[in-house]
């Protein structure tokens, strides 16, 4: 079993970095990076704890991928260009099989977005990891939760609720009536979220408010409404559902789409004047409703009000 320093060198310190903006990477007391002129640093951190944020049987490859993906999703939601990240890793033991699979999953996503691991910390204990992701955004162009205006369209990327169904099939040990392929799809969506970085950057200067959906669409959209002091009307019949969710009874599908966590899709508000610009770029996005002047979130189904039973995930 490798010692702490062997472990860092073997799995996390790469001999070459192609990134010009990393002045000093892993190996010193701290890393040095150059922030492009005219840009702000965007910083975010997220922790994943075994058994709480991922099922214990999750492969190390997926654990690492997801740990980075959820952080990149936060950068995407700010409209940032991702650049660097740090990894604070707590391991039960320094196990080569675990670590090689973990590093592979981590760098698969990091390389896809050309971001560099510039430092971190390695400790012994119950399996958990915190990634700090750093990016930059041109001055004045960050996407915030505040700024939605009455009349703006409300949009989501991709499909919603898949990861929630994936988690339900694991926790409840039942297939919810889905085919094996649909279950595998939902489990993939749970384990390998897709951070919408390209879309986030495309929304700079267009979206009036934006966030990523980590705790369920209803609750997270609620954060935009609160910060922007507006309300929303959304139409359930247009919620973007995967073919797996379309297999479920509508009420059950909406429940997952609105309240289940771990989607890591973007939810944003857009003035109608920017609609054509964005749509011409071909992003996988769906208009699900409209920002309104009343307070809170109202759901509709073909013109009839629809009452939700449960809001979303909260740790405490
Ligand atoms: P210090 O004691 O000064 O905090 P460490 O001995 O913990 O430094 O780490 C040595 C170097 O290795 C540092 O550059 C640190 O950022 C890096 N490092 C430690 N653990 C990790 C990790 N899990 N992933 C990436 N870099 C790491
Ligand atoms: Mg030191």
From TrEMBL:
GO terms for molecular function: ATP binding; magnesium ion binding; thiamine-phosphate kinase activity. Mg(2+) 2 binds at residues 46, 74. Pfam families: AIRS, AIRS_C. GO terms for biological process: thiamine biosynthetic process; thiamine diphosphate biosynthetic process. Mg(2+) 5 binds at residue 215. Mg(2+) 1 binds at residues 46, 121. Keywords: ATP-binding, Kinase, Magnesium, Metal-binding, Nucleotide-binding, Thiamine biosynthesis, Transferase. Its EC number is 2.7.4.16. Residues 27-137 form the PurM-like N-terminal domain. Mg(2+) 4 binds at residues 29, 44, 74. Substrate binds at residues 53, 262, 313. Gene3D superfamilies: PurM-like C-terminal domain, PurM-like, N-terminal domain. ATP binds at residues 120-121, 145, 214. Pathway: Cofactor biosynthesis; thiamine diphosphate biosynthesis; thiamine diphosphate from thiamine phosphate: step 1/1. It catalyses: thiamine phosphate + ATP = thiamine diphosphate + ADP. Residues 149-298 form the PurM-like C-terminal domain. It is an enzyme of class 2 (transferase). Mg(2+) 3 binds at residues 29, 74, 212. Belongs to the thiamine-monophosphate kinase family. Catalyzes the ATP-dependent phosphorylation of thiamine-monophosphate (TMP) to form thiamine-pyrophosphate (TPP), the active form of vitamin B1. This is Thiamine-monophosphate kinase. It comes from Agitococcus lubricus.
